[in-house]
Amino acid sequence: MPRLHFESAERLWLVHTPSTTYALRLDENDNPRHVHWGRPLTTAQAITLAGRTPAPASSFDTTVEAEELAADGGARFGPAGLRVRFADGTSGVEWRYAGHDAEDGHLRIHLDDRHHPLRLTLHYRVHDDSDVIERWTTIANRGEDQPIGVRRLDSAAWNLPHRTGYRMTHLVGGWNSEFQLKRAEVPTAETVFTSRRGLTSHHASPWLALDDGTAGENRGEVWSTALAWSGSWRITLHRDPVGRTSWTGGHGHEGLEWSLAPGETLETPVFAGLHTTGGFGAASRAWHDYVRGHVLTHPGETRPVLYNSWEATGFDVDEAGQVALAAKAARLGVEMFVMDDGWFGGRTSDHAGLGDWTPNPGRFPRGLQPLVDEVHRLGMRFGLWVEPEMVNPDSDLYRAHPDWVLHMAHRDRTEMRQQLVLNLARPDTAEWTHAWLDRLVTEHGIDFLKWDANRAFTEAGWPGHPDPDRVWLDHTRAVHRIMDRLRAGHPGLRLEACAGGGGRADLGVLARTDQIWTSDNTDPVDRIGIQHGFGQLFPAQVMGAWVTDNPNVTTGRRTPLRFRFHVSMAGALGIGGDLTTWTEDELKEAAELIAVYKRIRPTVQHGRAHRLAGDGALTGVGYEHEDQYVVLAWCPSRPYGHNPAPLRLTAIDPEAFYRDRDTGASYSGAVLLESGLPLDLPRGDYASALVHLVKD
């Protein structure tokens, strides 16, 4: 079956993925109407659905057929994904079909306004190996003399078939509490998910899933979408009183307006979506496969075990101290050493130095090269923390270029964490930023950059610019371009996306980085929930997860080293504690656990993840890859001292036997599915287990 099919007599398009069909058509007024998104349909079945066009209930109601991208104009009263105003004061659009083209799984449908020189193109792209449909929009001002005001330009709208009990699943949080999964009935209302912070944000995620109210981890229909954008964004979910359910989303937030100049084209980020009948677990695995196949630049690489110096030193960084930490990290089997904040300019606290990206001469009198060389001699790669988008007012950069920051005339410049945001929409600021990053990597042979961003946008203006709201879009695009240029110029360089933890986690930044720092909160109990939410969209290989000190710096909680390791082994393992204070027994245990992680790493990082739920507080993840199956299980508490029952596994062959690689015990696949895997959990709270099974 071809991926894209056009039925000309019906003006109907069918977009096929391996397991689903998406269908849309043009109505008699050339409006693009949604027909179907879900289980596979034949052309004849899609034609039957397209013929169902109920009339509005009354003159007070909206047009009843769902639209592919709702716009202002006519009898439309729901949330509009496209809002424009023309120079004569007219708002809204009336479409005339201007043709379509399709190649290599990419469908483009062109629509022109019937009076004004505006062209809209709807994009749909699919891949042979994925049920994910990538959608985005371009608009072009085809006039010669008048700009067009753009008040909202979404990437796509998604529409669902009629069901009575839809639920929404989304992520909320804050700094140190990112990716908290929430599930609730979809209200009869408009529900807005948004970030107005200039970053993807800790507080909400541009990922949204809906199900019919009956889906579970391993069964049921789920529709899931994710926006590939690293700045402010907005998704509006709408359920009307008769049960029609849709959502529209894209970059920007309410209150912004951009000017589309004559001859200019504006393109939105991808808003991707998938449908599955296999529940929330199948949706996550489909996203993970898509990320590996079509987002990540180096999906086949295993992420190294890294050490980061932040919790050991804070801002108290110098060559001798870093060399000592590097030596201890190398003893453990760490593969990459990352020096965090405090190495540059006058950076002895967060009050000064951001923007002055040269080594502090008092702390590194010989520059960075001796440290880099020593780390490489120890057999590790070298990484460095940077915050390219920010500047302290107490810095040489700001004193020289106070106009380079986001600001507005006659308004105070709000400082957060004693810093301001550089306006990378400015070509001169962006070019300077790329230049110092490129020079730093080139001169010192840097292998890895942790790219941080530690505050939200305020006073996001550009005095004197004719279209100041464009800074909300152009800054994010500049960040993406700088990352792209760095990677192109340094093919061996690897990047980690960070924004005070998980404040910038999205498919847009992940296309330019190799992993994401999930949260500044490294408490393993909190991390179980944070990592559960993160894994709804992202695979384990991009999830930065550190083992840090006791008591935890965030919560003060004390947990066994084994428990901390087992939680962090569920992602891209890192060490972030002060190794100079660890006992010899702790260092020995850590080295042994790192060796175990390296053995299971291919399965964890490249395998398919299955979330597991047991009795009480017992949860876990099973990773399957080729003939390997790795179980990581955690039991933070044991009410009344009761031991949980064996943990039931999924994705196990019931006809096969599985051997525990460490104990030699053999288990029937049918028994593992039905009665579970017995776990050798230590007594007490904060118990955990790692079981490495091999299919015989």
TrEMBL record:
EC number in record: 3.2.1.22
Listed Pfam families: Glyco_hydro_36C, Glyco_hydro_36N, Melibiase
The reaction(s) this protein catalyses: Hydrolysis of terminal, non-reducing alpha-D-galactose residues in alpha-D-galactosides, including galactose oligosaccharides, galactomannans and galactolipids
Glycosyl hydrolase family 36 N-terminal domain location: 31-261
Superkingdom, natural source: Bacteria
Family listed: Belongs to the glycosyl hydrolase.
Broad enzyme group: hydrolase
Key word DNA damage present: no
PANTHER family the UniProt entry points to: ALPHA-GALACTOSIDASE C-RELATED (PTHR43053:SF3), GLYCOSIDASE FAMILY 31 (PTHR43053)
Residues of the Glycosyl hydrolase family 36 C-terminal domain: 625-693
Keyword entries, A-Z: Glycosidase, Hydrolase
Protein name per Swiss-Prot or TrEMBL: Alpha-galactosidase
